[in-house]
Amino acid sequence: MKFSKEDIQKLTLEYDSGIIPPPYSHVFHMELDWSESILKVKLDLHYTDRDELSEQEILDEGFTLSDDYHYEGELNSIWIEPIQELLTETKWSPRQLDEGGIILYLNEDSVPKTPLSQEVWQLMAQDLIQAIYESTKKEAPLHINYRLVTEENTLDCTITVHFSNRTVILDQGEKSQALNWDYSIQLMKLIFTPDYHYEIAKEAPGTKPGAYIDCGDGLWHELGKGVVNIDPAFDAVGKIQQRFEDMLLG
Fold first, then answer.
1. Which of 24, 23, 26 is nearest to 52 (CA)?
2. At the top level of its lineage, which domain of life is listed (predicted)?
3. How far apart are CA 12 and CA 104, in angstroms?
4. What is the pLDDT of residues 25-84, one digit of tens each?
5. Rounded CA gap, 190 and 239, in Å?
6. CB within 10 Å: which end of the chain, N or C, has fewer?
7. Which of 73, 30, 21 is nearest to 48 (CA)?
8. What is the mean pLDDT of residues 103-118?
9. Axis crossing angle, helix 118-135 with helix 80-89, rounded to the nearest 10
10. What confidence tens digit (pLDDT) does each residue in 3-27 have?
11. Torsion angles phi and psi, residue 80, rounded to 5
12. pLDDT number for residue 100
């Protein structure tokens, strides 16, 4: 089953996190409508099974006691084309989901469709939710700060990811440039792949030779010491260093 960009003008996404335990478990219902060349959005997000936990257990995991969220409004129309492109590329499963995942309703169709590319659609939904959070000032854009210290130089840069309008800006001193969106999102996934040892993080970046990263929370980690690979077969730390060195030194 293939669709052209003109075939679909409305889309509903429903997601259930499945067996993930609280306070992380959640469901959401998102309606998208670009039939009038603007992107109208409705979102209802609800965290589930939190009555099994104490208030302190929820807070200890970095959540609040009121994380459910409702939004009805518009998003930047720059999101329309990526949604359409993903729809035209999607292959569909003939089976319903057993536990957890995302299903789609196309246009006014009441029959759910299950995309085979679950991870891709879940990432798209997460990006759209983040765009809503930024547009409503619930959350600020993501800032990644990086420092490379060599024997000769100290080089600093900041990557700012604006989900609200799908732009990514690299600031290095007085220089500023836009980065490719897809490349940047893959870099963000890579950055959050390793294990971060917060017990040895610092409030200021290092000054000795090495590579240091702040993932937006004001705490600095040294790559290779405070940031280590989870999977020995995949050198995420090395890849992060290489990507930033290419940007800083290229």
1. 23
2. Bacteria
3. 6
4. 999 999 999 999 999 999 999 999 999 999 999 999 999 999 999 999 999 999 999 999
5. 8
6. C
7. 21
8. 95
9. 170
10. 888 899 999 999 999 999 999 999 9
11. -60, -50
12. 92
Query: What share of the chain in percent tops pLDDT 70?
Result: 100
222 residue type, one letter: E
Query: Residue 228 corresponds to which tokens in the numbers above?
Result: 């280590």
Question: For 92, left (φ over 0), alpha (ψ -120 to 50), or beta?
Answer: beta
| Contact present, 40 and 138 (Cβ < 8 Å) | no
Q: What values do phi and psi take at 172, rounded to 5?
A: -135, 100
Round the average pLDDT of the chain to a whole number and report it: 95
pLDDT for position 145: 98
Q: Tell me, what amino acid is at 73?
A: G
Whole-angstrom distance, CA of residue 234 vs CA of residue 147 = 23
Write the secondary structure of 116-181 as one string of H (helix), E (strand) and C (coil): CCHHHHHHHHHHHHHHHHHHCCCCCCEEEEEEEECCCCEEEEEEEEECCCCEEEEEECCEEEEECH
Locate 114 and state its tokens: 């299950």
Tokens of 181: 């969106």
